[in-house]
Structures are given as C-alpha cells and as structure tokens.
Amino acid sequence: MVSDGDYFSISWGGLLGATVTVLITTLDDSIWLVSFVGTSSLPNQARLVNAATFLSALLGLAILCCTLAVAIEQVLLATATTTTTTDEAEHQQQQSLERTLQWIAVIFCWLLAAGFYIKKQLKRRRRRRQQQQQQQQQEESRLQNDDSDTLEQQQGIGSDYGSLAQQEQEESYAEDKTAAPLRTSQPCTVVMLTTLGFLDEISYFPALVIGQIFSVWELLLGTLLAGIAMLGIQAFLASQCKPFIDFLDDHVKLHGIIALFAFILTIQLMLEYIL
Description:
Elements: H1 4-7, H2 12-26, H3 34-37, H4 44-82, H5 87-155, H6 158-184, H7 186-198, H8 205-210, H9 216-236, H10 238-251, H11 254-274
Helix pairs in contact: 2-9, 4-5, 4-7, 4-9, 5-11
C-alpha cells in the first residue's frame, strides 16, 4: 500500500515524465492563451495577471485530482485497518486492497481512453459537417456576390460607398462594445477557459496516483512546469511552435496516452499475479 511518504516522494525521472506527459497532452489546447498573454494590445500588467491566473487555475485542478486519489486510498485503508484483528490479517488485507485499487485504476484508465476516443471521433465528425456547411455557405455567398455585382453595375457605385461606410461604422462600434468587457473580465475568463479546456486533459491523474505511476509531488510539480512552458510558448514562440502544436493535435492522441498508462498498469498487475 502507498504510505504517506510515497505520496510526496519525488525523483528526477518521475518529475520529467510527469512534465512531458502533461505538456504534450495539453499544449494543443492552450492556443487560446495567445489572446491573453501573447498579444501586445494588452498592457504587461494585465498579461502577468492572466498568466498567474492560468497557472493558479491549472495547479488547482491538479491538486483537486490528486486530493481525490489520496482521499479514496486513505478511506479504503482506514476501513481495512478497522476490520482486522491480527497483524498478519491486516497485511494480507492491505495487499488485497492495494491490488483492488490498482485494478480500479486500470479500469478507470481504460474507460477514460475509450471515452476520449469516442469524443475525438464525434468531434471529427462534427468538424467535417461544419466544413461541409462552410463550403456550402461559401458557394451560396459566391453566387450572391455575383448577383450583387451585376446589380451594382446597373445602379452605380454611389450607394455602394454609402453602405460600405455604414458597415464599417457598425463594425467599429461593435468592436468598441466588446473590447471594454474583455479588459475588465479577463481573469474570470482565463479561469473558465482553463477549467473547461484542461479538466478532461488531467482527469486521469487519480489513476496515475493510485496506480503508483507518479507520486503526488511529481504530478503537481510537473503540472506547474508544464504550465510555465505553455505560457512561454504561447507568449513568445506561438508562431514558431505552431507546426509542433499542429503535430501534437493531429498525431498525439490523449486517449492513446491514457491507454498506454492503462496497458502499463495491466502488465504490472499481471506480473504480480505471475510472480
């Protein structure tokens, strides 16, 4: 069974593995950070506040997931120790409980991998439908533009100039209306986007803690370092790293990484039964 010291143990290999895992599974979903930390239209103070808010929200989600895993283990361990009478029986029950928790972690990982795979396929289908609709709208717009060009040639360009000027004024007014709220509500927006965008990306943390792949400290520090790396990339290297981000989005699948962890945990359990 995992002891209290094991929860907060740390190794360089584990820290590096946790950092890389978090970074490659979340980097492709952090493109929205460019609008909050990588744009020169915001003052430096606002960009720093947004960056600190992002790191705090991301680390808070990681702490929540790790706390859930530790709480589950501690509750089951306390239940097991209160129902035993001898040291030998307690040791056997702890071993049985440890295997049960590892099986729970394995099943949880496989279910997550399957769920994210289905989600990815549905997202791909929805994207294809949107592309088809956009193509249809572009075709319809092209046909309408052809018709409008014909009418403009017949009516002259005076009315066209007036409509364009009015349209530009309306667009400028709309931009002015939307610009001010963004500047006053950015921290709240960053928290919301971080929670919605990254909660599913780190939802497998409890399984990694219960399955003893990483310790709590390794996952938390790895999340912090990955978050700092994401901020640096999106703030200073967004255009240079775009091919790499696109590669991660197209070829590195979250369900594949979770399935890899599930496979590792399954092999570990099978070896324990064999040996």
